[in-house]
């Protein structure tokens, strides 16, 4: 693992646990994480925070973005599984129809 990736993972882990009363990132649903991420971005864009506060907020934003990506990947997998099951059922129906004509 590269030093940059290790640092990012460490920062994400720190951002996952919140001492300031916020819900830990790993407990957030997609919509909650997305909405909080939008707030983080808006706050960072406004500026006015000191360096430490900006970095902490940026780390939280990275963790929120990762959480959103994980939720979307899970949803994508579920959709693909359903679509694949549907294709298999269609194929089985086609095979059964072919068997009817073999008699």
UniProtKB/TrEMBL annotation:
<comment type="function">
    <text>Bidirectionally degrades single-stranded DNA into large acid-insoluble oligonucleotides, which are then degraded further into small acid-soluble oligonucleotides.</text>
</comment>
<keyword id="KW-0963">Cytoplasm</keyword>
<dbReference type="GO" id="GO:0008855">
    <property type="term" value="F:exodeoxyribonuclease VII activity"/>
</dbReference>
<keyword id="KW-0269">Exonuclease</keyword>
<dbReference type="GO" id="GO:0005829">
    <property type="term" value="C:cytosol"/>
</dbReference>
<dbReference type="InterPro" id="IPR037004">
    <property type="entry name" value="Exonuc_VII_ssu_sf"/>
</dbReference>
<feature type="region of interest" description="Disordered">
    <location>
        <begin position="83"/>
        <end position="103"/>
    </location>
</feature>
<feature type="compositionally biased region" description="Polar residues">
    <location>
        <begin position="1"/>
        <end position="15"/>
    </location>
</feature>
<keyword id="KW-0378">Hydrolase</keyword>
<dbReference type="InterPro" id="IPR003761">
    <property type="entry name" value="Exonuc_VII_S"/>
</dbReference>
<comment type="subunit">
    <text>Heterooligomer composed of large and small subunits.</text>
</comment>
<feature type="compositionally biased region" description="Basic and acidic residues">
    <location>
        <begin position="16"/>
        <end position="25"/>
    </location>
</feature>
<dbReference type="GO" id="GO:0006308">
    <property type="term" value="P:DNA catabolic process"/>
</dbReference>
<feature type="compositionally biased region" description="Acidic residues">
    <location>
        <begin position="85"/>
        <end position="103"/>
    </location>
</feature>
<keyword id="KW-0540">Nuclease</keyword>
<comment type="similarity">
    <text>Belongs to the XseB family.</text>
</comment>
<feature type="region of interest" description="Disordered">
    <location>
        <begin position="1"/>
        <end position="28"/>
    </location>
</feature>
<protein>
    <recommendedName>
        <fullName>Exodeoxyribonuclease 7 small subunit</fullName>
        <ecNumber>3.1.11.6</ecNumber>
    </recommendedName>
</protein>
<dbReference type="Pfam" id="PF02609">
    <property type="entry name" value="Exonuc_VII_S"/>
</dbReference>
<dbReference type="GO" id="GO:0009318">
    <property type="term" value="C:exodeoxyribonuclease VII complex"/>
</dbReference>
């Amino acid at each position: 693992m590269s030093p940059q990736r290790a640092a990012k993972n460490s920062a994400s882990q720190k951002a996952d646990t919140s001492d300031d009363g916020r819900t830990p990132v790993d407990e957030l649903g997609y919509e909650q994480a997305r909405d909080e991420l939008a707030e983080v971005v808006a706050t960072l864009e406004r500026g006015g925070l000191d360096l430490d506060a900006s970095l902490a907020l940026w780390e939280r934003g990275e963790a929120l973005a990762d959480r959103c990506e994980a939720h979307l990947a899970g949803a994508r997998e579920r959709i693909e599984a359903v679509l694949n099951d549907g294709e298999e059922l269609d194929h089985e129906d086609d095979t059964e129809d072919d068997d009817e004509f073999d008699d």
